[in-house]
């Protein structure tokens, strides 16, 4: 049974999934992933589930792989972030297009990102925990990134913490595309 609906974003193939929340006097429940969702997005399987935790002001991203690109379902399960994506597919009608999507634990939403879309986020709450359902395997050799400053993001404030690797990524115009 599909308990979710989705809304397309401005990046071709990327969607915001709205999960149906079941709540009562005990608390709440929703399915973050099910076979129906995988089928709706033509995802053959999930090969990895990951969790990241970040402090206020942390910016992570913009990450992608040039070979063996990943498919990702991204949710904020604690706190709040501004989730960021950019289309790197040269043949896409939305190539170079960026999106900012607010994700927070109370919204029960997941951002679906197809292959060829770089991903990152800015933590806007005291702490945030992100849940990733991934189709594909991380391969350090194929890992790439784009410096967020070269993209057209409208962030609510300047990031406070960015690791050295993410600061050193090339600008969009110098990046490898898919």
List its salient traits.
six-stranded antiparallel sheet; five-stranded antiparallel sheet; Jelly Rolls
Task: Please describe what this structure looks like.
By secondary structure, this protein is mainly beta. The chain has a single domain (4-170), classed as Jelly Rolls, CATH 2.60.120.10. It is built from 2 helices and 13 strands. The chain has helices spanning 35-40, 164-168, and strands spanning 4-8, 15-19, 22-24, 27-29, 48-55, 59-65, 71-78, 80-87, 98-104, 109-113, 117-123, 127-135, 143-145. The longest helix is centred in the N-terminal third of the chain and has 6 residues, at 35-40. The model has no long low-confidence stretch (mean pLDDT 95).
* Percentage of residues in DSSP E strands: 35-45%
pLDDT below 50 for ≥5 consecutive residues: which ranges? none
Which superfamily, in CATH terms, is the homologous superfamily?
Answer: Jelly Rolls
Tally of separate helices: 2
Which strand order does the major sheet show? 1-2-10-7-12-5
What would the CATH topology be? Jelly Rolls
Q: CATH class, please?
A: Mainly Beta
Q: N-to-C SSE series?
A: EEEEHEEEEEEEEEH
Distance between the termini: 35 Å
The CATH architecture term is Sandwich
**Percent helix range:** under 10%
Number of β-strand runs: 13
Largest sheet features: 6 strands, antiparallel
Count of separate structural domains: 1
* Rg, Å, rounded: 16 Å
Question: What is the structural class?
Answer: mainly beta
Give the overall silhouette: globular
Mean pLDDT equals 95
Task: Give a topology summary.
Layout: E1 4-8, E2 15-19, E3 22-24, E4 27-29, H1 35-40, E5 48-55, E6 59-65, E7 71-78, E8 80-87, E9 98-104, E10 109-113, E11 117-123, E12 127-135, E13 143-145, H2 164-168
Antiparallel strand pairs: 1-2, 2-10, 3-4, 5-12, 6-11, 6-13, 7-10, 7-12, 8-9, 8-11
């Amino acid at each position: 049974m599909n308990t979710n609906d989705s809304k397309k974003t401005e990046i071709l193939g990327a969607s915001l999934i709205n999960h149906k929340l079941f709540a009562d006097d005990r608390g709440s429940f929703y399915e973050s992933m099910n076979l129906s969702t995988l089928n709706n997005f033509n995802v053959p399987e999930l090969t990895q589930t990951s969790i990241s935790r970040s402090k206020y002001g942390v910016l992570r991203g913009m990450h992608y792989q040039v070979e063996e690109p990943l498919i990702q379902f991204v949710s904020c399960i604690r706190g709040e972030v501004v989730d960021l994506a950019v289309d790197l597919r040269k043949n896409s009608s939305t190539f170079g297009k960026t999106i900012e999507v607010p994700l927070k634990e109370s919204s029960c939403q997941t951002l679906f990102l197809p292959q060829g879309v770089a991903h990152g986020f800015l933590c806007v709450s005291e702490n945030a925990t992100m849940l990733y359902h991934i189709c594909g395997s991380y391969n350090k050799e194929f890992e790439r990134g784009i410096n967020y400053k070269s993209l057209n993001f409208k962030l609510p404030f300047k990031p406070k913490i960015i690791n050295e690797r993410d600061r050193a990524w090339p600008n969009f115009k110098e990046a490898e595309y898919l």
